[in-house]
């Protein structure tokens, strides 16, 4: 992967925004791969600023999110559907009909994964996929041990991830869904350009493992080494364990 060390999240956000605005101008109906979590927020803000200031036409832009909780009403404020609407769709002024989030409805979740991968393929594949990384090296909800060839599917959340996410559910772990539907590592690797963002010392070990460790399902993000066009954008703290 190409590693870019930046001073702060705003600088990282500007690099992402530049990539995406170039893409939209070149390909107005491009397909963005979207992530939730804190890491991409400055990037979405920078992109929204560029799009709005330069009056870039985003009416045809399409998008696919990485993951969603299982069995949580998509209208719940903490669903990833709601989160993507709040942080991406509204600030950029995207057409909500063109933005897809995996369907976590329990009645159809067994079939929903393959259907999601087919929908991505029918859209022509993801052009730029933004990614955060967990302190354990997860991408999407692909925790350590996930197959590097996996497609979109239902997964069990680890205890640690449920503890980490309890802050979004009144600090009550019993309210955190136990399962999710997530793009697989194989799905993520099909995107044409991967942009992984990581900030803070807490991510340093995972970043070093991703970029300089062996390719292993024990660090799902290390699959980026299999990808021909992966960009890892980190601050000094997140880069501190790189050799
Ligand atoms: C987000 C996602 C997760 C996060 C990761 C890092 O859709 O699937 O993999 O990217 O947990 O989260 P933050 O950015 O909050 O540190």
From TrEMBL:
Cross-referenced SUPFAM superfamilies: NagB/RpiA/CoA transferase-like
Pathway listed: Amino-sugar metabolism; N-acetylneuraminate degradation; D-fructose 6-phosphate from N-acetylneuraminate: step 5/5
Any Gene Ontology biological process: glucosamine catabolic process
GO CC, any one term: cytoplasm
MF terms in GO: glucosamine-6-phosphate deaminase activity; identical protein binding
Glucosamine/galactosamine-6-phosphate isomerase domain sequence ranges: 12-225
Residues the record marks as site: Part of the allosteric site: 146, 153, 155-156
Domain of life: Bacteria
Hydrolase is among the record's keywords: yes
Regulation of catalytic or functional activity: Allosterically activated by N-acetylglucosamine 6-phosphate (GlcNAc6P).
Annotated keywords: Allosteric enzyme, Carbohydrate metabolism, Hydrolase
Active-site annotation: 67 (proton acceptor), 136 (for ring-opening step), 138 (proton acceptor), 143 (for ring-opening step)
UniProt catalytic activity: alpha-D-glucosamine 6-phosphate + H2O = beta-D-fructose 6-phosphate + NH4(+)
Top class in the EC scheme: hydrolase
InterPro entries: Glc/Gal-6P_isomerase, Glucosamine6P_isomerase, Glucosamine6P_isomerase_CS, NagB/RpiA_transferase-like
Coiled coil: none
Family: Belongs to the glucosamine/galactosamine-6-phosphate isomerase family. NagB subfamily.
Name used for this protein in its record: Glucosamine-6-phosphate deaminase
